[in-house]
């Protein structure tokens, strides 16, 4: 699987703090996916155009899975969902619903995240909150459905470590 991880944060992009979200996503994936995995990481500033532009490039490069962390909230610069909406062909709203449900068990402000997921070309794009602690909570909540989703869109077949995530394939 070719995975791409995008950190959307003005301050991480400017070097005002060290990005912990990108490395957090990568180590979560490496701990769960047992089939061959390549990961590229990207740090970009907040903004609809900034998000749409990097996603278009990654979709054209045929990334199978794109994780985007940050910019999902209600603040003026939080425009990640708008940038994602500019290029996805199909929204998978259930991902956002389930990730928020899992996060709400930890923090009441989880309801402020507009995180979602969608399909562009042969890429599955999943958005996550910027808080590094949200990454495991959210990915643990939805990843069982990711391998079959990748099958359905013609991306690479992946397997997961059943001790961490049991992939569910209804036709298997
Ligand atoms: N990529 C990241 N790496 C490390 N910490 C992060 C990251 N994104 C967010 N955080 C932490 O979560 C807190 C709240 O995140 P929030 O979404 O408000 O991001 P932010 O810091 O305002 O990002 P921005 O740079 O876009 O303004 C931040 O103050 C920071 O402590
Ligand atoms: N699991 C989890 N989800 C969370 C949070 C968190 O700390 N943990 N923070 C929330 C907050 S405070 C905000 S504003 C939104 C959006 O964050 P973002 O703009 O960094 O994407 O995510 C929410 N979801």
UniProtKB/TrEMBL annotation:
A Pfam match: MoCF_biosynth
GO BP terms: Mo-molybdopterin cofactor biosynthetic process
Record keywords, A-Z: Molybdenum cofactor biosynthesis, Nucleotidyltransferase, Transferase
Enzyme Commission designation: 2.7.7.75
This protein's pathway: Cofactor biosynthesis; molybdopterin biosynthesis
Claim: Transferase is one of the keywords in the record: yes
Molecular function as annotated in GO: molybdopterin adenylyltransferase activity
Residue span(s) of domain MoaB/Mog: 4-149
UniProt cross-references to NCBIfam families, sorted A to Z: molyb_syn (TIGR00177), PRK09417.1 (NF006932)
PANTHER family found in the cross-reference section: MOLYBDENUM COFACTOR BIOSYNTHESIS (PTHR43764), MOLYBDOPTERIN MOLYBDOTRANSFERASE (PTHR43764:SF1)
Name under which the protein is recorded: Molybdopterin adenylyltransferase
Native source organism of the sequence: Paenirhodobacter populi
């Amino acid at each position: 699987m070719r995975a791409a991880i995008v950190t959307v944060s003005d301050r991480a992009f400017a070097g005002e703090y060290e990005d912990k979200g990108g490395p957090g996503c990568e180590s979560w994936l490496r701990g769960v996916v047992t089939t061959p995995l390549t990961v590229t990481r990207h740090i970009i500033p907040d903004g609809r155009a900034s998000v749409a532009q990097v996603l278009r490039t990654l979709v054209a490069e045929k990334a199978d899975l794109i994780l985007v962390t940050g910019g999902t909230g209600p603040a003026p610069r939080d425009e990640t969902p708008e940038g994602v909406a500019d290029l996805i062909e199909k929204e998978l709203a259930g991902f956002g619903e389930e990730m928020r449900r899992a996060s709400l068990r930890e923090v009441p402000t989880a309801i402020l995240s507009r995180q979602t997921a969608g399909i562009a070309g042969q890429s599955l794009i999943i958005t996550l909150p910027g808080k590094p602690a949200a990454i495991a909570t959210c990915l643990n909540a939805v990843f069982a459905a990711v391998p079959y989703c990748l099958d359905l869109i013609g991306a690479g077949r992946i397997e997961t470590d059943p001790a961490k995530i049991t992939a569910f394939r209804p036709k298997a």
